[in-house]
Amino acid sequence: MFKATSVFALASLASIVNAQSSPISVWAQCGGIGWAGSTTCVSGLQSMYPSASTTGSASATSSPAPTSSPPVSSVANFWFSFGDSYTQTAFSPAGNPPQVGQPLGNPPYPGGTTTVGPNWIDFDTAMFNNSLILTWNYAYGGATIDASLAPPFTPTVLSLTDQVNEFLSGTANKPVVAPWTSNNALFSIWIGINDLSWSWWQTGDRLAYNDVLLDADFALVDELVSPCRRRNFLFINVPPIQRSPYFLGLDPSETNETAPILQSVIEDFNTKLAARASNLSSTLTGVKTFLWDSYTAFNQILDDPSAFGS
Ligand SMILES: *[C@@H]1O[C@H](CO)[C@@H](O)[C@H](O)[C@H]1NC(C)=O
Ligand SMILES: *[C@@H]1O[C@H](CO)[C@@H](O)[C@H](O)[C@H]1NC(C)=O
Ligand SMILES: *[C@@H]1O[C@H](CO)[C@@H](O)[C@H](O)[C@H]1NC(C)=O
Questions:
Q1: Distance CA 252, CA 48 (A)
Q2: In a domain? residue 4
Q3: If you measure from the C-alpha of residue 282 to the centroid of ligand 3, how many angstroms do you get, rounded to a whole number?
Q4: CATH number of the domain that residue 178 is part of
Q5: What is residue 62's DSSP assignment?
Q6: pLDDT at residue 270, as a whole number
Q7: H or E segment at 185?
Q8: What is the side-by-side order of every strand in the sheet holding 185-190?
Q9: Is residue 17 part of a domain?
Q10: Which one, 17, 45, 67, 196, has least CB within 10 Å?
Q11: Which domain, by its residues, includes 182?
């Protein structure tokens, strides 16, 4: 029912910086749809978004509340998605819910994405789908797993912890608009990009810190699993952000040294993520896990962009 075959826009490869500037701020969303903060970009980073004033798009927070129950097909499948700017569509759980004809709810398709056009979750929900999928996409640009472990660029960013709490206090309770069951629901988590971009240049044992990050990640997964223990999980690993155009554009006298460090931190995180995902399904009866290896997929694209139409 779910296919994760979309080709990601290379423009969405997030950037990374050296330890001397302010690494968090260059990851920041700086302007555009749904963005009420400063529109001043850190030097070296262009706004990833068109300005809201030029697009005229409604921001997620101004979406009107539903006036009556929207049409929900009895054959719908449900997707609850958590992540960062690679996944965000600027969905607001308080606005119009996903429904037949608007499978991602608000804002109107494709929502507020980093690519400006449809992103992977848009494509997989509405184009590569083999069934009707209604997607609650809690992903939030700039998100880390938990702000106390890896601080986001600004305190208003909803971390994975915040996103899971939004789900638990809302759609988890199966409102009329979301009559999901353990069997027809998928939970996806694509997180770690911002955590590692903040983490790798810090002092201390970074590989040990990956365990700390993943402990927090999987504590949240445990909350999603309980109490029924019958859930489908899709995990997506961290792509090779040390190969992003932004990183490659930095001073080679630094990145020649730092790229392999970042790469080793990412690869360690991904290896541990895969082990934990596999452990989850082998130790908990009824839990199925899927892993989409974005690390390998992005490398294939970056190795031969022209084969992918670039
Ligand atoms: C895929 O999603 C679109 C948008 O919700 C829907 O119109 C279409 O019927 C779905 N495709 C299938 C095969 O169910
Ligand atoms: C960085 O690495 C590339 C490729 O190995 C090499 O051509 C270049 O001279 C190096 N630059 C610096 C400043 O070390
Ligand atoms: C495997 O999963 C079980 C049950 O969730 C947990 O207690 C254990 O610590 C996990 N082991 C590893 C290596 O992650």
A1: 24
A2: no
A3: 9
A4: 3.40.50.1110
A5: G
A6: 98
A7: strand 185-190
A8: 133-137, 77-83, 185-190, 232-236, 288-292
A9: no
A10: 67
A11: 73-308
Tokens of 11: 């423009």
pTM of the model: 0.80
Of 280, 167, 271, the closest CA to residue 218 belongs to 280
41-66 pLDDT tens trace: 222 222 222 233 223 333 344 445 55
Nearest CA to ligand 3 atom 10: 279
DSSP E strand boundaries for 14-166: 77-83, 133-137
Measured in residues, the chain has a length of 310
Considering only residues 68 and 138, tell me which one the structure prediction assigns the higher pLDDT.
Answer: 138
Ligand nearest to the CA of 260: 2
Instruction: Give ligand 3 pocket residues (Cβ under 6 A).
Output: 276, 279, 283
- pLDDT-derived band at 285 (thresholds 50, 70, 90) equals confident
Ligand 1 atom closest to the Cα of residue 132 is 14
Smallest CA separation from ligand 2 atom 3, residue: 256
Is residue 214 one of the residues assigned to a domain? Answer: yes
Taking the centre of ligand 3 as the mean of its atom positions, its distance from the CA of residue 206, in whole angstroms, is 21
Burial of 92-117, coded b for 16+ CB within 10 Å and e otherwise, reads bbebbbbbeebbbbbbeebbbbbbbe
Q: How many distinct structural domains can be found in the chain?
A: 1
Please choose from 231, 276, 279, 285 the residue to mutate so as to test ligand 3's pocket, defined by most ligand atoms within 8 A of CB.
Answer: 279
- Closest-CA residue, ligand 2 atom 14, reads 253
Domain assignment present for 38: no
Residue ranges of alpha helices (H) inside the chain are 23-26, 52-55, 120-126, 160-168, 193-199, 206-225, 245-248, 252-283, 294-303
